[in-house]
Amino acid sequence: MATLTPARRVAYQAFFECRRNNLRIRDYLRESKDFLELSVQDKAFATRLALGATLTKGKLDQALRNHLKSGIHLEPKVQDALRIAVFEVLYLETRRDAVISQGVELVKSISKRSSGLANAVLRKISEKEAQLTRAKNPKTPSELSWASGIPEWICLEIIESLGESAAQKLILNLKNPAPVYVLQRNVSEQQLQSSSLELQQTVLPDVYEVKNPAQLNVDAYVKKVQLVPADLASQLVALLAASYVDQDMLEVGQGRGTKSLLLSHAFEVLDKENPHITAVELVKGKSHVSKRRLKTAGLSDQVTSLTFDATQFVSPEVPEELNQSFDVVFIDAPCSGLGTLRRHPEIAWNLSSESLYDGGELTVLQTKLLQSCSSRVEVGGFIVYATCSLSNSENQQVVDDFLASPEGSQFEVQSLFECPARARLTPEAQEFLDTCIRQRDFCRRLLPPPIAMPTLWRCSNANKKLLLCCPTRASQIRFMSGPESQKAWNYFPLLSVL
């Protein structure tokens, strides 16, 4: 008699609790006692199941509907168990008889009387819908939707934004686990080598890929803010944005302080003489977390954290600390998060297409933020606008709308070739960066270069050299930057490593 494996049981429990309480899967797993007690291998499998079923939920339900008799309504718990099982049938390489057996056991653990239905439905799905998810060379939005598990309209939006070839590679890559990266702050090489995280150096200075991410949440260096988890794209954008700062920066959308930590480190790498960051965050709780992390990191004097609505800079209620102009205004705009689907799979089936298009709540808010924050840029300064979205609706279109507004009329676009950070790269690194630049000075990278490029970063301190290797995962980043004369802006739609 088959026995339900611990990983599948924990994955189901996580999926059920997050669906019922509207929680994020990753946040739940971090605090789950049952998950933390699993072996390293089972943690990885449970995470794959829970995140995967969340990302593909709509297609799983479609497959179930195709084989349920009219009038049959599944109990929510049973439906959740079937979703976990159907995900494994359609999107993982588990042997057919094993996955059906385990799926039946999972449903039986919830409702014994539903085990027969589960057996019949899983067998039918493994024969029919599995052909759709395993189709060779899917290209149309419908084919890509089944192959990836995300909504068809999102596939179409990505195709229209990136082009067919790039979109296909990106969408099909969603089935692979997202890589994890950390920035090291004040950690010796010996300490890094002894870390249980198994770190591998990347193309960026002091940035490492984590080969054993299961240990990340309990790592002492992370708790002490000596290692800062952040996607590679986020770290690169922080480095480039920091290169425009002379004395002070306004950071909009501070969140829990990760960007402040990245920017502070970038100032050190770029030999900036302790510029000051004034950071605003709309959610008071997040601002408190930022203050605590920055205090732990010893950066309380360098970063001022405030709770403030950045759409209200024209209001007379602006705090004294914000009643000034800044070299750089860095806007981490609220967005759809389409560039972070592997990291935040809940987005795929919760996002409404109406929020992205003309008059949509997200694009209206993004444009309003640009218009409001532009009043805090000093003459000759920059706006850095960052999103984690793949959609042109949130990137190019929002920027075009801003430039066409009265507030944006004083701003121009400058080539990425003139980004100060670029001059700090070696010729090999500059050549690589140049190959990523596309129309309107966006920079897009979908795959790592075919050969390793050592010594990609050159510091002004001749005694400090970094030997860096190529990233081993596909990533996608776009950039646009602003002018030298009058007011200028930089545009970095920031995409998570997908």
Describe the structure.
- With 498 residues, the chain is of the alpha/beta class.
- It has 3 domains: 128 residues, Orthogonal Bundle (N-utilizing Substance Protein B Homolog, Chain A); 35 residues, no CATH class; 314 residues, Vaccinia Virus protein VP39 (Rossmann fold, 3-Layer(aba) Sandwich), CATH 3.40.50.150.
- The chain has 21 helices and 12 strands.
- Helix 10 crosses helix 11.
- It is globular and about 70 Å long.
- The relative contact order is 0.10.
Please count the helical segments: 21
Straight-line N-to-C gap: 40 Å
CATH structural architecture of the largest domain: 3-Layer(aba) Sandwich
Radius of gyration: 24 Å
Class derived from helix and strand content: alpha/beta
Query: How many structural domains in the coordinates?
Result: 3
Strand order of the largest sheet: 7-6-5-8-9-12
Name the beta content range. 5-15%
CATH topology of the largest domain: Rossmann fold
The whole-number mean of residue pLDDT values reads 84
CATH class of the largest domain: Alpha Beta
Total strands: 12
Major sheet details: 6 strands, parallel
The geometry reads as: globular
| CATH superfamily descriptor of the largest domain | Vaccinia Virus protein VP39
